[in-house]
Amino acid sequence: MSGCKNIGCVWISGETPQLKGKIFEDKLDVAGALFGLMPPGVAPVDGSKLAAGQKIVFVGSSGPHENGFTTLRRIAENLPDGYRTKLPDGSEFWQAINAPSILYTPFIQDVLKAK
Question: How far from each other are the two terminal CA atoms of the chain, in whole angstroms?
Answer without folding.
Answer: 29
